[in-house]
Write a structure and sequence with these properties.
alpha+beta, 4-stranded antiparallel sheet, 4 helices, 10 strands, disordered N terminus
Length: 174
Amino acid sequence: SLACVAAMALWAGAHGDRLRAQQAAPTVRTIGPYTLTTIVDGLDGAWSLAFLPDGNMLVTELQGRLRVIRQGVLDPKPVEGLPAVFAESHAGLMDIALHPDFATNQFVYLSYNKPGPPLPPGVPTMGKRLYLGYSPSGDRPEGQRLTSTLAVARGRWNGTTVTAIKDIFVADDW
């Protein structure tokens, strides 16, 4: 999203010397009145990011992965410990936020689409009920259509993985 790009550009500006020492020069592009600075490549559908107190970043990918950018370098291995994510079309792992007292408790919050039970035969998909041009569960045949709902989970970031993850909110929207 544009907010993600803007936040990464601001971070890159503040930590530019350290970035240049760690990796190749960032790619800079100008699009109209905007200057975009790519600080890492290799993210797939980056959606949201959170800056850790040490300057590193946690980045969500809509496809259901959480990634870490350490000192300007993308860790090639996705973070483990996340809940199952329904990641299709416009659904997946969305926002990430740090607890206001993160330095003490290491809590991270993630919003995501929680997979649900199959849609009963004969029940129209959400896309059909809302007259959308798409369905979050795709064009599956009767009996194979899936459901999902919004959930918010909280876990602890230990520097390499998310532990003790649990849902703290699940919308009753199956």
